[in-house]
Amino acid sequence: MASNTDFVQFIADQCGGAGEIVTKKMFGDYGIYCDGKIFGLICDNRFYLKPTEAARALLRLEELRPPYEGAKDYFYIADVDDRDYLSELVRVTCRALPEPKKRK
To answer: Which fold has domain 5-96?
Structure first.
């Protein structure tokens, strides 16, 4: 089941306090980016955050699960209604992730 575009936009809006949020359709679901850096996935109307120690320290509930079959585990974020919480999770996650590689 693919994600509903309204849900995708809701997650993007909720994360908006962290920076410029962009979603890109990937394999029927979505990658979500902040200031050009991919930090999570939206699959089957669920939000997944790349795992980092910085985010782990802020999580209200730590639940690791793969966003799709065969994927590595991500933090599954069920509590998507608190905009400030999501924005802070995205901010600390993006700080901890490496810069994207420059394309030639």
So the answer is: Yope Regulator; Chain: A, (3.30.1460)
